[in-house]
Design a protein that fits this description.
Elements: H1 2-12, H2 18-24, H3 34-45, H4 65-78, E1 84-90, H5 93-105, H6 113-129, E2 132-133, E3 140-145, E4 151-156, E5 159-167, H7 201-213, E6 217-222, E7 231-244, H8 253-263, E8 268-276, H9 280-283, E9 293-301, E10 318-322, E11 335-349, E12 352-359, H10 365-370, E13 376-377, H11 380-384, E14 388-398
Parallel strand pairs: 1-2, 1-3, 7-14
Antiparallel strand pairs: 3-4, 5-7, 5-8, 6-7, 9-12, 9-14, 10-11, 10-13, 11-12
């Protein structure tokens, strides 16, 4: 124990602080902290430190009341409400290298200087503010820059809210569309809103939640999307709403859900709102082998169809569908193989019928009906022998990622 301490002091000519000496001895000497370990060794060796640290350049003297007051004032100025936090620090590279080189010289597997600094600051802040340290999923990260000019920055982590939505009015897109002319900057064509459409499923829920959380921005992540002219019925489509930089995290989702649904009555509705985790926004976009969607489509033919041929629709099974022309500008042009899982129909008149169809996720229903100039095979038009189009489409069920 004393030999290692003496060797370290010799190597550094005694130019160490109590933190750096104690840190290098943390695996060999018991103590309350690194300073306590250092004091034990110095007493046993009958020597003193020089007062100048060749490893950290006395950086630990910056962990003082002035620094902590900066942290508290920064949090107060932002008006943050939070429960958990984590400390991050920026330390000059030469200090990090000196600390690493000394450990490598003596083959020491000990805490790094960055870890010790973060731990000391974290314990102090937690005790003063009565908050909890969370290494995995903190509400905020306090980043302390300990270079020549000390400063403090707060990273506010997002919150994620999961739910399902219904859309009861055609003409509302799922997410905000920038104006096609000005690309969101604002012009006469969009009445200087920067938007192609005045509202969206995303905005109708995110605006009230942004107000409640004092968040900076929202991002909407849906389990697929329906076209702007398509309704979303049944139990709704799963989604995750990401609120970036929320200053208030403890919000009453049940009360907000009621308020939002009342405001948007007849247009959209949002159900089963709950807090969720970051990975969930990617999970809902994944399709399991058992996931499916059910649609109800009104099919109109350009001329009278043979009602006996409707039976042929039951033969629709494996569909080879090249990327539809209408979405080819934003999706890779390739052939996707999807399956029809179930189908039924009801005659409306000699040119029109209603079709209820259950499919794997990702099958384009409008193109399944029209054929999309031969890009979707087989298709309703080819089976009936007449050109047909989807006059009206509703989504009536979207399974979750487990196919439920």
């Amino acid at each position: 124990m004393l030999k290692l301490a003496n060797d370290i002091l010799t190597k550094t000519d005694g130019n160490l602080c109590s933190h750096c000496l104690g840190r290098k001895l943390s695996k060999t000497i018991d103590g309350r902290n690194n300073v306590d370990r250092s004091q034990q060794v110095l007493k046993a060796l009958g020597c003193e430190l020089s007062g100048q640290c060749s490893v950290c350049d006395n950086i630990f003297t910056k962990l003082n009341d002035e620094l902590y007051n900066r942290i508290y004032k920064k949090i107060e100025s932002l008006g943050l409400e939070f429960t958990t936090f984590h400390i991050g620090s920026k330390i000059p590279k030469d200090i990090l290298n000196s600390d690493k080189e000394l450990s490598e010289t003596f083959n020491l597997d000990v805490e790094t200087i960055k870890q010790e600094i973060n731990r000391i600051i974290g314990k102090k802040v937690a005790a003063t503010l009565d908050k909890e340290i969370d290494f995995e999923n903190p509400d905020i990260i306090i980043i302390v820059n300990l270079s020549d000019k000390i400063n403090v920055r707060i990273q506010i982590n997002p919150i994620f809210i999961e739910g399902r939505y219904n859309k009861y009015l055609r003409g509302i897109p799922q997410t905000k569309w920038p104006c096609s002319k000005c690309r969101g900057k604002g012009c006469e064509e969009c009445n200087f809103t920067g938007k192609q459409y005045p509202e969206s499923v995303e905005e109708l829920i995110s605006d009230p939640i942004l107000k409640a959380t004092k968040g900076y921005q929202a991002s909407f992540h849906g389990a697929g999307r329906e076209d702007i002219d398509v309704l979303m019925l049944g139990e709704g489509r799963p989604f995750v709403l990401e609120i970036k930089e929320p200053k208030i995290r403890d919000i009453n989702l049940s009360a907000l859900e009621d308020e939002i649904n009342e405001i948007n009555r007849g247009k959209t509705a949002y159900h089963d709102l709950k807090f969720t985790y970051r990975k969930r926004k990617a999970e809902i976009k994944q399709s399991s082998p058992d996931s499916y969607k059910i649609y109800k489509a009104v099919v109109r033919c350009c001329e009278e169809y043979d009602s006996d041929k409707l039976e042929l629709l039951n033969d629709l099974n494996e569909i080879h569908q090249q990327t539809p022309v209408r979405v080819s500008h934003r999706r890779a042009d390739k052939v996707r193989i999807k399956h029809v899982l179930d189908l039924s129909y009801e005659i409306i008149d000699n040119k029109t019928f209603e079709m209820t169809i259950k499919t794997e996720g990702g099958l384009y229903i409008k193109e399944l009906i029209s054929g999309d100039g031969g890009r979707s095979n087989p298709n309703v038009s080819s089976l009936l022998g007449v050109d047909a189009v989807c006059e009206q489409l509703d989504v009536i069920e979207v399974s979750d990622i487990n196919g439920q």
